[in-house]
Amino acid sequence: MIITHLSLTNFRNYGRLELDLPLGTTLLHGNNAQGKTNLLEAVYYLATSRSPHASHERQLLNWEAAQADEPVIVGRLVAQVSTQTGDRHIEMRLIQEKQRNGRSGQSSFRRQALVDRRKVRLMDLLGNLRVVLFLPEDVQLLTGSPSGRRRYMDITLCQIDPAYCRALSQYNKALEQRNALLRQIVEGQGSLDVLPIFTDKIVELGSQILGRRAAFLSNIAREAQHIHYEALTQGQETIRMRYLPRLPQDGNGRNRDAADLEAAGEWLQANHDDTGAIAERLAQTLAEAQRNDLGRGATSVGPHRDDWALTVNGRNLGSYGSRGQQRSAILSLKLAEINWMENLTGDKPILLLDEVVAELDERRRGLLLNAVQQSTQALLTATDPGMFTTQFLEQATGMTVENGRVRLDRQVEL
Fold first, then answer.
1. Rounded to whole angstroms, how far apart are CA atoms 14 and 175?
2. Which tens digit of pLDDT belongs to each residue from 353-397?
3. Which whole-number Å values give the CA distances from 366 to 29, 133, 351, in the listed order?
4. Which of 144, 323, 354, 387 is deepest in the core (most CB within 10 A)?
5. What is the pLDDT of residues 73-99, one digit of tens each?
6. 116 lies in the same domain as 68
7. Is residue 341 part of a domain?
């Protein structure tokens, strides 16, 4: 899988860009704040419909264009993608439109997704382009909140599994409806008789999500352990990925400690393909938690409360790991993600590496660059090409990024 051509209009600091991308490795280099990261963000956004940096899609629009006195501002991201099954034309549009008869400066914002020039739902865009993104701040997957770890699972799975993505979207809507009803019941405005309708929907969809997450984490864990143990630590450290679902083993609905959550995760991973058993257990847990849910006006158990953790030699890396151990674990996880996607699809995902090489020591850097050179297409950013070997630079295509413009180098100079 490769992108042969990337086109950006009114995206970040790019007013207009038309860029042919070659096979193999492309090194995007230049000073800070010139647009290197924005290029990777554009590719990631086309693959996932999410930005790794922006809190709202409005921020992706070119600032000068967004401030212009025009009734409609359109940002366009377009990629021509070549895969083993054929070529695809993928497009995302970011549309800011001033409201008629509204207050001065008031505007609406919407997104459109197109595949082969036909409008599709956002979830139908997913899977047409698959990427693995490396960021310096990826260590926050270990040290940050559970919501970030759930987001990682969802984004990764949605690139591969359309059924998972549909179930997740429907689950989130059912969860919102159930929570709204719980609040109404607390306020004396809702009927308790209606609650089973939404609970049944949570059980149906939630059991699918739990099973797919359990299978995903099992597969990723095996790959990561192999990479970490053999390639990164020379047999000195064992890495383990633990699934921590909010699904108490005895079904009593109470908050559980880490050991009980881990036991629930092990049960799910052993039974990930038995949707009926998972649904039965989730239904029991929701029934036991109903009194608590009514008291707090929100659903307390289910996939929306999931978490996972990485441990090295039995110690939680988020709490006790050194910076070097955390970087090694994340590198193992990302390299495992590459292998997992290729095993399932037969296509290598596109690798996106944003200034991560400088964060790694020589051994980790060598392992990562070996994966890069084996990939079908990889885009790297760096302020200093001198951190790469002469051999690597001779094999890579160098491009200089300066003030929203990209030019091809004949050769990147040390």
1. 39
2. 998 887 777 877 887 888 888 889 999 999 988 888 888 888 899
3. 19, 18, 16
4. 354
5. 899 999 999 988 889 999 999 998 887
6. yes
7. no
Residue 387 domain boundaries:
2-130+347-408
pLDDT, tens digit, for every residue of 122-166? 989 998 999 999 998 888 999 999 999 999 999 999 999 999 999
The helix or strand, by DSSP H or E, that contains position 307, with its residue range, turns out to be strand 307-312
Q: In this structure, which amino acid lies at residue 154? A: D
> Which candidate, 291, 279, 297, places its Cα nearest to that of 176?
297
Name 357's Cβ contacts closer than 8 Å, sequence gap at least 6: 365, 368, 369, 380, 382, 387, 388
pLDDT at 105: 60
Token pair for 394: 């001779």
284 assigned to some structural domain: yes
Beta strands 2-11; 72-83: pairing state: antiparallel
Name the residue among 66, 81, 6 with its Cα closest to residue 38. 6
CATH number of the domain where residue 351 is located: 3.40.50.300
How far, in Å, are 60, 70, 75, 198 from residue 63 at the CA level? 8, 13, 11, 43
Residue 177 to residue 167: CA distance in whole angstroms:
15
Smallest CA-to-CA distance from 78 within 20, 161, 1 is with 20
